Amino acid sequence: MPSIRIELLIHAPAEVIFDLARSIDIHAKSTAQTRERPIAGRTSGLIELGETVTWEAIHFGIKQKLTAKITEMARPSYFVDEQVRGAFKNFKHTHEFVPIEGGTRMIDTFIYTSPMGVLGKLADKWFLEAYMRDFLLQRNLYIKSAAEEAVRQI
User: Fold this and answer.
1) Taking the CB of residue 97, how many other CB atoms lie within 10 A of it?
2) What are the Coenzyme Q-binding protein COQ10 START domain coordinates in residue numbering (predicted)?
3) Three-state SS across the chain?
4) Roughly what angle, to the nearest 10 degrees, separates helices 129-153 and 14-21?
5) Taking the CA of residue 65 as centre, how many other CA atoms within 13 Å lie in the half-sphere pointing to its CB?
6) For 24-63, what is each residue's pLDDT tens digit?
7) What is the span of the domain harbouring residue 11?
8) Which of 10, 12, 91, 105 is the S-S candidate for 112 at Cβ 3.0 to 4.6 Å?
9) What's the whole-number average pLDDT of the chain?
10) Do residues 114 and 121 touch, judged by C-beta distance below 8 A?
C-alpha cells in the first residue's frame, strides 16, 4: 500500500490554506492539466464534513470518475477525504495544516491501494506512485501560490 507524503512551508495562515485546500473551485483550477471537473455532489465552494464530490478527469488518456467524501474535519488543523467510488481499490487523503513561525506547514499524506492485485502493485512501482506524487505536488504548489498571493493582497 503506497504512501505519499508531501510537506510544504507556506507563508500564510492555516485558516487561509485550509479553505483553499477544500475549495472545489481551486481544486479544479489546480488540476487543469487533467481537465478535472466536479460533476456531482458538492460542485463549487468549500466542501464540508460529510459531503461528497464526484470528479471527472482524464488520466493516462482515459476519462475517469472518482467520488470522495470528507470523513474527518477540524478547522483549520486538518481534514480527510476518502474514496467512495473510483479507480483505486481505496484511498485515504489527509491534509494537515500546522502553524509555525512565518507561516504554516502543509502536510499532505495520500495512502492508497491500487486495483488488480499484483498488476496494480507493478503499476505502482513502474509509474503510478510517481505519477500521483507529481500530481499532488503540482496541486499543492498551486495552493501555496494562491495562499501566498492572497496574503500579499491584504
Assistant:
1) 23
2) 11-119
3) CCEEEEEEEECCCHHHHHHHHCEHHHHHHHCHHHCCEEEEECCCCECCCCCEEEEEEEECCEEEEEEEEEEEEECCCEEEEEEEECCCCEEEEEEEEEEECCEEEEEEEEEEECCCHHHHHHHHHHHHHHHHHHHHHHHHHHHHHHHHHHHHHC
4) 130
5) 10
6) 999 999 999 999 999 999 999 999 999 999 999 998 889 9
7) 3-153
8) 91
9) 94
10) yes
In this prediction the pTM is 0.93
- How many domains, the chain? 1
Instruction: Say which residues have a Cβ less than 8 Å from residue 31's Cβ, sequence separation at least 6.
Output: 57, 135, 139
Spatial contact of 70 and 47, defined as CB atoms under 8 Å apart: yes
The cell for 149 is: 498571493
Report which of 65, 59, 30, 63 is spatially closest to residue 137, judged by C-alpha positions.
30
Q: Omega of the bond prior to 2 within 30 degrees of 0, cis?
A: no
Residue 47: give its domain's CATH number.
Answer: 3.30.530.20
| Cα 31 from Cα 25, distance rounded (Å) | 10
